[in-house]
Amino acid sequence: MSEAIHLETLSITAARDHVRSGLITATALAEQHYERITAVDPNINSYLALSRDRALAQAAKVDADVKAGAELGPLAGVPIGVKDVLTMVGSPATAGSLILKGYHPPYDATVVGKLEAAGAVLLGKLNCDEFAMGSSNENSAYGPVHNPRALDRVPGGSSGGSAAAVAAGLCVASLGTDTGGSIRQPAAFCGVVGVLPTYGRVSRFGLIAFASSLDRVGPFTKNVADAATMLEVLAGPDTLDATSSQTVPARYTAELAKPVAGLRIGVPDEYFGEGLDPEIRAAIEKSLDALRSAGCTIHKVSLPHTRYAIPTYYVVATAEASSNLSRFDGVRFGLRAAESNTLAAMFRKTRDQGFGAEVKRRILLGTYALSAGYYDAYYLKAQQVRTLLTRDFLAAYEQVDAIVCPVTPTPAFKLGEKTDDPVKMYLEDIYSVAASLAGICGMSVPCGTTAAGLPIGVQILGPHFGEATMLRVGAAIEAAQV
């Protein structure tokens, strides 16, 4: 028997239980999502491609397992979307760029394989800023994503499609990537949960690289328990990723049951200064009150090098982007410019036609920072400051178990509002890039709305491989919103 389900609020736990109990088949649940995508997504533009054949084949397998009474995976029948910077056989992987238009990868990213092994039904590929470079999802070559909470607003970037699809009920959960805030900021803007795992906690194999020492893969979900379930599936070592940690992951779903009483929560002064929207400040203070009521103690901490995080990030990230994106030259895959008389002309024309303005800007910045005579002044210095930022967090975590602070300085801004001023756009990442540079874990959890009804997120930052404690703090804040 199958029946209509309220997709906007459907959680992983509910979807899995409905499929297991026979309330609905995995096939019917996938079809309902495709029907909703057809009806709703033209106004949002979150999906770039649908993987209907693969999804329905997986759903049929789950349904057969249910009928046979076989053991089911933790994501059995759960419809999930995948950011289009991750490779997935049978689907294009454009990274939101014209230069990869028509490219179909011959292998699955490790995280894609893990989701499917857990029973997930992969609906399709989700829109994003080109090569994950952006804070608004307006840099996609395939059009901007609209925030489903307010269609005239940005969903955040670069994983805007991943956040918007979950918020709009176009998938139950999704995969995004975060290089400098690209999971946490869209989660805050769209009112969903987004998790940045510790660097090395989740495999990057199959991720089209932006900045390899910063890029991380993580989930978007509708609640913290679902985030724990997703992270439990995704986390773990991978021989295909040389940066993958051998540290054994915790049982995140079991850890959620532990109380937060006695945890020490740090509040950094540097994240509550000038420029923070007063409604966001008030919502975060309310979250801190909730943690206090749950038995946590609140402590001031200092992260003194925070002021250098934005310039440091935009040197390190652009330098790595310049190197990583050199492979897109029209020779091996994707776009190739026509009517070029020489190889050098083909390179130039392909890259000029294939890359958008923001990607070109970052390649130029990164190439300059790495060039002879400037390497020591920019890239080397940025790496030294990165170490100081990391030491700030290490010192703070000697005093506290987790840090609570804003995700963004403002709520979701209007489409087109900041596209003409790159510096203003870069400053949207002011509260997120330091954690990226330090390699620690973080997450965004909804903690209220503005008077205009726009979502507000609170950021919880944990130490390296401290996801279990971070998720517990996030769950306590979430419980206070009910």
What labels describe this entry?
eleven-stranded mixed sheet; alpha/beta; 482 residues; Amidase signature (AS) enzymes; 38% helix
Fraction of residues in helices? Answer: 25-40%
Quick one: biggest sheet? 11 strands, mixed
**What would CATH call the class of one domain?**
Alpha Beta
- Distance, first to last CA: 32 Å
- Report the C-alpha radius of gyration, rounded: 21 Å
Structural class by secondary-structure content? alpha/beta
> Total number of β-strand segments?
11
CATH architect. name of one domain:
Alpha-Beta Complex
CATH topology of one domain: Amidase signature (AS) enzymes
Question: With helices defined by DSSP (H or I, 4 residues minimum), what is the helix count?
Answer: 16
The average pLDDT is 96
Proportion of beta-strand residues:
5-15%
Shape: globular
If strands are numbered along the chain, what order do they take across the biggest sheet? 1-3-2-4-6-5-10-11-9-7-8
Spans of 5+ residues with little confidence (pLDDT < 50)?
A: none
Series of H and E elements: HHEHEHEHEHEEHHEHEHHHHEHHEEH
Helix and strand layout, with pairings?
Layout: H1 12-21, H2 26-40, E1 47-50, H3 52-68, E2 79-83, H4 110-117, E3 121-126, H5 160-167, E4 173-178, H6 184-190, E5 193-196, E6 216-221, H7 224-234, H8 252-255, E7 264-268, H9 278-293, E8 297-301, H10 309-324, H11 343-354, H12 357-370, H13 376-396, E9 402-406, H14 422-426, H15 433-438, E10 441-449, E11 455-462, H16 467-481
Parallel strand pairs: 2-3, 2-4, 7-8, 7-9
Antiparallel strand pairs: 1-3, 4-6, 5-6, 5-10, 9-11, 10-11
